[in-house]
Amino acid sequence: GDSVVLGASQTYNAGVVVNLAANAGSGNVFSDWTGPVASTSANPTTITMDQDQTIVANFTTQSYVVNVTVIGSGSVAPGSDDKSTSITVNDAVTTFTYAVNTEASITATPASGYQFTSWTGDKQSTVNPTITIPNINEVYNVTVTFTPTTTYYTLYTSVAGTGTITGNSTTLGA
Asked: pLDDT class for 3, splitting at 50, 70, 90?
């Protein structure tokens, strides 16, 4: 069949099958067709000219996700410069969705009695509890790990008189 440039009009003989291909602009993806095409979800598709027809190619902003798995006790949330369009929580995985070429900024916050340990996976850090991905243009899978905090106390000992003190099989004072 013939091809038509989207955004234009063309006259066809009755019964002609026209091939339609939607070409997304930068930062967009084809979503679907509106109108009497052979398949509203297929691209390319066809339309049979049995009357005047109007069709629309629908596009949406291209998006990518950052899937965050949490190990230990803590949570994740958008950072101060985050540009996420949606956040979905499913068990231990939080999914942040971003339009293409926007900035992802995700902050990990430990629960009481826990500390931030690391980000691993497609983005790594053991220092900063906030990860930043400038100009996101692919799917990222990361894991944040929280570990229990260890509290240390010092035991001061002394002996008055003659003798020793032991604790956990170690001589503490003499």
From this structure: very low
d(CA 52, CA 54): 7
pLDDT at 28: 86
Give the distance from CA 103 to its chain's centroid: 11
In this predicted model, what pLDDT tens digit does every residue of 83-104 receive, in sequence order? 888 899 988 899 999 999 999 9
| Spatial CB neighbours of 54, under 8 Å, sequence gap ≥ 6 | 35
CB 100 within 8 A of CB 60: no
Residue with tokens 């234009």: 8
Beta strand extents in the chain (DSSP E only):
2-3, 17-20, 28-34, 45-48, 56-61, 63-71, 74-78, 86-90, 93-99, 104-110, 114-121, 130-133, 140-148, 165-167, 170-173
CA–CA separation, 58 and 3 (whole Å): 18
**What pLDDT does 6 receive?**
54
DSSP strand pairing (140-148 vs 63-71): parallel
| Distance in angstroms (rounded) separating the CA atoms of residues 132 and 39 | 40
